[in-house]
Amino acid sequence: MQDSRYNKYLGLPSIIGKSKAQVFAEVKDRVAKKLAGWKGKLLSIGGKEILIKAVAQAVPTYTMSCNQLPKTLCQDLESMMRSFWWGQKDKENKIAWVSWRKMCRSKLHGGMGFKNIQAFNLAMLAKQGWRILTNPDSLVARVFKAKYFPFDDVLNSKKGSNPSYAWRNIHNSLEVIRRGTRWRVGNGRRIHIWDDRWLPTPSTRKVISPQADYGHFPMVSSLIDNDTR
Question: Is the pLDDT of residue 194 over 90?
Answer without folding.
Answer: no
